[in-house]
Amino acid sequence: MRPSLSSQRLSTKDLVYFEIKQKIIEGLLKPNQSINEESLASELDISRTPIREALQRLEMQELVIRLPNGRLKVAPISIQEVEELFNVRSLLEGLVTREATIQATDKDMEKLKQYTQLIVDASEADQRVDVVNFGSEFHNYLYQISRNQTATKILNQLNDRVSRYRRLAPTKDNKRSQQAAEEHKKLFEAIANRNHDQAEKLMREHIHNSLNAAKSSIALHLHNNE
Amino acid sequence: MRPSLSSQRLSTKDLVYFEIKQKIIEGLLKPNQSINEESLASELDISRTPIREALQRLEMQELVIRLPNGRLKVAPISIQEVEELFNVRSLLEGLVTREATIQATDKDMEKLKQYTQLIVDASEADQRVDVVNFGSEFHNYLYQISRNQTATKILNQLNDRVSRYRRLAPTKDNKRSQQAAEEHKKLFEAIANRNHDQAEKLMREHIHNSLNAAKSSIALHLHNNE
DNA sequence: AATTGCATAACTGTATACAATTGCTTTTAG
DNA sequence: CTAAAAGCAATTGTATACAGTTATGCAATT
Q: Bridge partners of B34?
């Protein structure tokens, strides 16, 4: 998610960071593709300095890999990575959900209810993209409520990496959309009832279900492109 | 040709990263202290370029904070941060422990047994520093066995941040050392018995117990220095 | 004395220049 | 003809120069 441009001035380095990241997520820069600082610099018509700093951030985030000789390439994708990402996310999303359930105000509950309704509506209209987007907003709002900056920062970075895989999943898996909507409904109920154990458990299961839905199509993609 | 040396070779940027990080952990650079690129550069007798890149890595790791005006300061410490760190660590350490329990070879088990014995011996000799160090090696070895690169990378970064707080804890809390040794013994048993549920649970509890042991002394320190 | 405005200093952001390393091609010894 | 090596090209690492921004101190004004 891109911070609003109006609220804070962004340096060239920051803009480049978001730009390259987006290219990696969208597959414009493909897994394992080698990265050249100078060609990126001339392409964006700036010097190498901000490019280097943006790339280093992406390297820290593991969207870019540094080879032993110092050169860079776009990080590969793999079934193992997806599983790792979802296993870690499952725990951390569960944690923030638990904390949010305990700390949410009545106003927060109202907001969560609205997001849930948007998800349900989108799924009934077979708008999978909307289900995913409102789902993200729902999750992000939970991060906010939890006020857990450490978990939130990690989750945001992991979610960027997950985005690469979402692109590979089928664009109209309505069955999964409906299931996801159902899961969010149950999740919201648990949160609204202040049942943090149940909420944490449901969130973990929700993440794992997303993984299972995604895995087969990803495996297929990886097999076709090796 | 000397391939072993060339692969080990670290750039100035990397060395500076470790050096500044160490200074922050040891408290030579104090929480909230403002950081000046140029003075660091002249102090280490290098240019600003590698300093900037090292600082950016530390910023990503949240050991350094960037103010809205672009200037940097050493990240503050707080009770809230400790709690967040331990809550996240608890879950991730539990995850890698579970995975390690499933995947460990007989040789791995032997190695873990040795580390456990070293911890027990150190605690009986009232060598708290050794208890902490062997404890770290035990944990790091679990990371290795788990082969979970995502969790390992996150844990290593979190552990750097935790190190700052360890420095504030009393240097000779032998009661806690003995308790930690006992916990590691039980943990090893669960791992050796391939009881991954129990191992995960014990590891989570172990981390939470460390937090509770550390929290009071940290609270005291924060109170005395505000 | 407090406040505003301006000048200047201090600092970060970006560009460019240069050094060091790596990869590649060609040459040359066997 | 093969393989090591020399030389060149491409690329990253570091230093320096310059531009832009923010903070600071001082003077003027009320």
A: B73
- Chain B residues close to A37, C-beta within 8 Å: none
Nearest chain A residue to B50 by CA: give it.
A53
CA A139 – CA A112 distance, rounded (Å): 9
Question: Is there a single domain that holds both residue A137 and residue A65?
Answer: no
Taking the CA atoms of chain B, what radius of gyration do you get in angstroms? 19
Question: Which residues are within 8 A (CB) of B223 and not within 5 positions of it... i.e. 6 or more apart?
Answer: none
Q: Give yes or no for B92 touching A (CB within 8 A).
A: yes
Among A39, A74, A109, give the residue marking a domain's end.
A74
Residue lying closest to nucleotide C13, CA to C1': A11
Report if residue B122 sits inside a domain. Answer: yes
- pLDDT of res. B121: 93
- A68: nt with nearest C1' to CA: C22
CA distance B129 to B122: 8
Cα separation, B133 vs B117, whole angstroms: 13
Task: Specify the number of domains making up chain A.
Answer: 2
Domain containing A33: what range?
A: 12-74
Strand partners of residue A74: A64
Query: What was the pLDDT predicted at B83?
Result: 96
| Structure confidence by residue, pLDDT tens digits, B71-101 | 999 999 999 999 999 999 999 999 999 999 9
The answer to whether residues B119 and B152 belong to one domain is yes
Query: What is the Cα–Cα distance from A176 to A194, expressed in whole angstroms?
Result: 27
CB within 8 Å: A91 and B87: no
The answer to whether A41 faces chain B, any CB pair under 8 Å, is: no
Instruction: Please state whether the predicted TM-score (pTM) of the whole model is above 0.90.
Output: yes
What is the per-residue pLDDT across B122-165, written as a single tens digit (0 to 9) for each? 998 888 889 999 999 999 999 999 999 999 999 999 999 999 99
**Can you give the CATH number for the domain in which B90 is found?**
1.20.120.530
